[in-house]
What does this fold into?
Amino acid sequence: MPTTRQSLSGTVRAPYWWDTVGSRESCPPLSGDVRCDLAIVGGGFTGLWTALEARRRRPQDRIVVIEAGSCGNAASGRNGGFCAPSISHGVGNALKRWPTEAEKLIRLGRSNLDMLETDLSAFGMEVEFERKGKLTVAEQPWQVEGLRSQAENYRRFGIDCEHLEGEALKRRLDSPVYVAGLYEPNYATLNPAKMVAELRRVALSQFVVIYENTPVTRFMNGSGGLELVTSGGVVRADRVVLATNAAPPLLARLRLATIPIFDYALVTRPLTPEEMRSIGWTDRHSIADCGNQFHYFRKTADNRILWGGYDAIYHFGSRRNEEDLRESSSLDRLAINFARAFPSLADVSFTHAWGGIIDTSARTTFFAGTAHAGRTAYAMGFTGQGVSASRFAALTMLDLLDDVETERTRLAMVRTAPFPFPPEPFRWLGVRWAQRGLADEDRTGRRSLLNKTLDVLGVGFDS
Ligand SMILES: Cc1cc2nc3c(=O)[nH]c(=O)nc-3n(C[C@H](O)[C@H](O)[C@H](O)COP(=O)(O)OP(=O)(O)OC[C@H]3O[C@@H](n4cnc5c(N)ncnc54)[C@H](O)[C@@H]3O)c2cc1C
It folds into this structure.
């Protein structure tokens, strides 16, 4: 078996996804002051879906997107591209946190994925969208039990699924590590960089103005309306949407609502059909294991394996260093775990490695709200499941700005804020203890006292 260093030498430290997108010209940064009806801060999925939906609702409005770097430079261009039929980070999370509205959350999550697919074809977006299902695999006996109760919950809500063991599992994935699986056919994947690039293309074609390389440094309610200050000028807007995800929030009230968690991924060279057959992965479903420290893996369009997750790293003081997006001991750990899961592929090289920052909230779902007498809306806290939920969040923010009551705005998940994270040093200590407990639970099947207490308080930690 090769050493990790061998398999990561020569690995490009950048998201693979951007190699699949042709070169594009940056939108010019803001230069001078401008006025608009709606200003959106953040050019990721959330901000760009907001722009498209705002254009649909108000065709005459002047809509401006202000992006600190290039659109998709952050989480939206760095993720695994798992596109869930869920806005609540899964059925189990909906049931645990909002039992009385779980049915509604599950239904809205499934229809959001349907509508996302409809939008892709309505806008002619080519994003390698594939609805080929997802397999969740278990390694330990208590995880197999967890899969069985997940299957029961699925059946209760009419969600198709199939419990797999032995030969049936081997036909979907043949690994010495995993002993059982739950296959759900209604789950999609897409190419996230293509998704951002297509959202941006359509937004520009619909006369949305995008300023790239334009960080907003200050946001205030000034005499001339809401003012977003940048080094190139000031944007004055009647209404503002904040779609800044894991970046330091522009509203003081949001500073304790989420923490930035670093998550990493590797991508292999393209694999041959024989290599894929050697691990029983001949269909194009995506896969994740069900540990607290879980791996997610999927195929790319050219048959590479993207292998990500496991560690979820919090740096003291919510540090967000660029260097940490390229280098981390997590990458070595991922490579070792890949070889363990797929011994027959242990000498396959990784062409790309990268990290991204997840906006973890204590409920592991997004929440939304308003400020400035309803003229500013925000949504954040997606916690590793924002590829599809970002579209739903965009619609929710516009409902809030339009001051209309909808099924979306009535959700307790949306209306109530998650439990805040404590300030340092308690934040760092709390995350460390919770993570240590979760890692122990993966080994022993026993939940730590701290995590049981957090469960009672409705506080969780995930990536
Ligand atoms: C490694 C990784 C893997 C993931 N895998 C998955 C997955 O498989 N499935 C899934 O559903 N989710 C996944 N996620 C989560 C998902 O990527 C995010 O939830 C989603 O992209 C959030 O979109 P967004 O537009 O809100 O945030 P972002 O894409 O982070 O966009 C926010 C934008 O705001 C800009 N910005 C911030 N502050 C300012 C400012 N002051 N001025 C101007 N601009 C500003 C940033 O530059 C950034 O472009 C993953 C995330 C990571 C990091």
About this structure: The longest helix spans residues 102-123.
